[in-house]
Design a protein that fits this description.
single chain, alpha+beta, Thiol Ester Dehydrase, Chain A, 5-stranded antiparallel sheet, 5 strands
């Protein structure tokens, strides 16, 4: 099971009028975290797309527990929880100084250039 962590500082432009991280930006952070997890494994989304494979979000869940504020330094922990030949599932934890602020999960499906479901590249599934 692959696990990775990245650190992100909340930028002013990502906050609402109360100085809190806008809820939609958690999704952007999740994407950045899973992109870096793939990169840590030696590949990139750019590599996948050049080979004709695309990952699309098929399901997304998020639970907000505590707010993040402007200038907070956050850790996003990403874990691959399950994979099949055509799907991969991730779990995310957003932490500030060890406190859990949000948790989420995504299911991504692999499609080809025509948007048709296809098997993920062998290097991604370990085949």
């Amino acid at each position: 099971m692959a696990v990775g962590e990245i650190t992100i500082r909340v930028r002013y432009a990502e906050t609402d009028s109360m100085g809190l991280l806008h809820h939609a930006n958690y999704l952007v952070y999740f994407e950045q975290a899973r992109t870096e997890l793939l990169r840590a494994g030696g590949r990139t989304y750019k590599d996948m797309e050049a080979e004709g494979f695309f990952l699309v979000v098929a399901k997304l869940e998020i639970k907000y527990r505590l707010p993040a504020h402007y200038d907070d330094l956050l850790t996003i922990r990403t874990t691959v929880t399950r994979s099949s030949p055509v799907r991969i599932e991730h779990r995310y934890e957003v932490l500030r100084d060890g406190a859990l602020l949000a948790e989420g999960a995504t299911t991504l499906a692999c499609v080809n250039r025509d948007g048709k479901l296809c098997a993920m590249p062998a290097w991604m599934t370990g085949d």
